[in-house]
Amino acid sequence: MIIQEGHKKFLYNEKDELQKFGNPYMELTFNYDPLTYWGIPDAKYLEDQQLAVNEVRTLQMNTRRASLLRFIYDSNIMTDDEIEKLLTEDVACAIKADGDVDKGVKIFQPYVAPDFDMNVEAIRKDAREISGLSRNQVGEFEGGRRTATESQIVQMASQIRISERKDMVADLLVDIVEKYNQYMFSEYNVQQVEDIIGPDGVRYWVNFTYEQIKSKYAFRVDPESGMPVSSETRKQEAVMVAQYIHNSPLIQMALQPR
Q1: CA gap 20, 4 in Å, rounded
Q2: Each residue of 109-141: b (16+ CB within 10 Å) or e?
Q3: What is the pLDDT of residues 48-70, one digit of tens each?
């Protein structure tokens, strides 16, 4: 039902079919906040690093702009018209100077230190440590030789964090399916007929109603089955299946002509 303060009647006072088995929604929160209902997004943990990167990039941009080529000239030696020739796009030009050229123009260009890029890389490293992902796992190439054991240790450590979230998503899917099954079973208002295989291996036709099959069924979701598989992995799995079929005595017996 829906009511409003100051209103004498219900705005909505009918039975909500979606609330027969509780609230019609499920919530999933990876990072719980003890102070509010809403969880803490992953971006919040990386906010300080992102602000630091923005600040370093802004300083680098301002420094790069300030380091553009500049020069000071003596107006007694070079006129304004001759200075304009220095600013043109002409490949070759002749500039007239009335005096010592070395004293007429003084060029200066500030130095842009490479520390900005080093600072950005250090901040990115902090962000990767917070998120629990290495350079390779975020799609970047990381140089240096690594043994198979070292790579396996890194992969196992990374899967600890990812697997925890996979399990949370799997539990959420199970809860959703269980609730929707209750909705569907509650709408069975006619008798159903299905053929089943009995314990003796014989097919039987049975009839049933909603009340007879009303129950809370157990489901299982394997989050690992949803991982992306490369074409090379699929080929290896296909070869393993073919070898199993070729060497399995049960399959060979089934393929023999009767």
Answers
A1: 23
A2: eeeeeeebeebeeebbeebbeeeebeeeeeeee
A3: 999 999 999 998 888 888 777 77
Give 90-146 pLDDT, tens digit per residue.
767 777 778 887 777 777 777 777 888 888 888 888 888 777 766 555 555 555 556
Q: Where is 72: in which H helix or E strand?
A: strand 70-73
Two tokens, residue 205: 């036709």
Residue with tokens 């990386």: 46
Residue 80's alpha-carbon distances to 71, 75, 89, in angstroms, are 13, 7, 17
Q: What are the sequence ranges of the domains in the chain?
A: 42-140+150-161, 172-227, 231-258
Q: Is the pTM of this model over 0.70?
A: no
What CA–CA distances, in Å, run from 79 to 3, 88, 91, 104, 247? 84, 15, 21, 10, 95
